[in-house]
């Protein structure tokens, strides 16, 4: 049996011919298995969706109750059978509810890791290395130049700036699902006790994380119209990246533009966005994490879905591991 009989790339996403289901499909399909709630992996309009309870909750919050025909929650670590294929979900360490999906049939085991990272994250369960024949990985930061610093050191830079510029509004851009909550939790872990002001687009997901036991502390709405702009001086205000282009962002007193993303490694990207304080905090594996994970799992084959595929494929070949790029389209790294 070839691995492709169990799972193969198709225009709608990774498809299992034996199981008759898709993983993270980018088009509406009859049966979807979804790794996590970022909008490039979790789309609305499928028939049946199998995912962790938290991913289903997140999809419902983002798309509304009718986001799919039927929801099927699966517990992390538990296995079920779909048309003879054994299916199990395991932690990916990416965002709350995120999972790798393990598929097994006739002794062949394929793991679709979705998006993942290996750094500790107070907002989700850590990545679990799984034995498999084929490991399917992303390569968003799949170049040796991507060497993410310790996130706590990045948080320390933010805290230093708050001390140095007590009159400026520290306006932080962070993705609405995962990054914003991780940033808040990291600040709290460093002892930051002041209220943190959040854009309206973050409220639902922050409330959800809190209800799932992630400590986010005192969060308040950052509604600049109804509040004296002086209120936000010296405070942390967090909004999704898109909010930086809205009128909302221009209402704050003397804003200091900050952005938290793995892309902040690239000076040019920070400059283009007008970011004064780039924070390199990523929910994806960097080059070292990617290669260390492949060494640890030691699969017989590596498939690379999207990102800087060629460099990682080349690394695998030099390491004597069969590898192929899948050139999957439609995965835009919502939560980098
Ligand atoms: Zn993601």
Automatic annotation (TrEMBL):
Statement: the UniProt record of this protein carries the keyword Thylakoid: no
Enzyme Commission numbers on file: 3.1.-.-
Domain of life according to the entry: Bacteria
GO molecular function terms attached to this record: exonuclease activity; ligase activity; RNA endonuclease activity
Keywords attached to this entry: Exonuclease, Hydrolase, Ligase, Nuclease
Enzyme class at the top of the EC tree: hydrolase
Name recorded for this polypeptide: Ligase-associated DNA damage response exonuclease
Species for this entry: Ciceribacter ferrooxidans
């Amino acid at each position: 049996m070839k691995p492709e009989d169990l799972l193969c790339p198709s225009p709608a996403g990774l498809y299992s011919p034996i199981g008759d289901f898709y993983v993270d499909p980018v088009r509406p399909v009859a049966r979807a298995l979804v790794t996590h709630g970022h909008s490039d992996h979790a789309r609305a309009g499928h028939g049946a969706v199998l995912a962790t309870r938290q991913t289903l909750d997140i999809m419902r919050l983002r798309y509304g109750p009718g986001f799919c025909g039927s929801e099927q929650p699966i517990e992390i670590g538990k296995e079920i059978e779909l048309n003879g294929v054994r299916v199990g979900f395991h932690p990916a360490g990416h965002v709350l509810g995120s999972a790798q999906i393990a598929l097994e049939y006739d002794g062949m085991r394929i793991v679709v890791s979705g998006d993942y990272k290996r750094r500790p994250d107070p907002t989700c369960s850590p990545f679990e290395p799984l034995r498999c024949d084929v490991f399917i990985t992303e390569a968003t930061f799949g170049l040796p130049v991507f060497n993410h610093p310790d996130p706590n050191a990045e948080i320390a830079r933010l805290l230093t700036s708050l001390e140095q510029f007590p009159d400026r509004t520290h306006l932080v851009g962070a993705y609405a699902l995962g990054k914003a909550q991780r940033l808040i939790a990291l600040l709290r872990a460093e002892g930051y006790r002041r209220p943190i002001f959040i854009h309206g687009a973050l409220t639902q997901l922050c409330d959800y994380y809190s209800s799932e036991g992630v400590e986010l502390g005192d969060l308040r709405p950052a509604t600049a119209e109804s509040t004296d702009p002086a209120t936000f001086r010296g405070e942390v205000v967090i909004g999704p990246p898109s909010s930086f282009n809205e009128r909302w962002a221009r209402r704050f007193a003397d804003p200091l533009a900050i952005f938290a993303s793995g892309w902040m490694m690239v000076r040019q990207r920070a400059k283009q966005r007008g970011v004064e304080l780039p924070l390199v905090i990523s929910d994806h594996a960097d080059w070292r994490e990617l290669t260390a994970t492949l060494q640890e799992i030691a699969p017989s084959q590596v498939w690379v879905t999207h990102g800087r595929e060629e460099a990682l494929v080349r690394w695998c070949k030099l390491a004597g591991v069969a590898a192929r790029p899948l050139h999957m389209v439609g995965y835009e790294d919502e939560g980098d």
